[in-house]
Amino acid sequence: MKIKAAVLPATQQPFLLTEINLDTELRADEVLVKIVATGLCHTDLSIRDEQIPFEIPAILGHEGAGIVERIGSSVTKVKEGDHVVLVPASCGKCSYCKSGHPSYCSNFFLLNLGGTRGDGSCPYHDHEGKNVAGFFFGQSSFATYSLASENNLVKVPTDVPLEILGPLGCSLQTGSGTVLNVLRPQAGEGIVVSGVGPVGLAAIMAAKAAGCTTIIAVDVHENRLTLAKELGATHTINSRNTVISDEIVNNIYPGGVHYGIDTTGRNDVINQMVGSLRYMGKAAIVAIAPTPKLEIDYAVFMTGKSLQYVLEGDSVPDIFIPQLIELYKRGLFPFDKLIKFYNLEDINQAVEDSENGTTLKAVLRMPH
Question: I want to staple 190 with a disulfide (CB 3.0 to 4.6 A). Which of 21, 69, 85, 257 is the partner?
Answer without folding.
Answer: 257
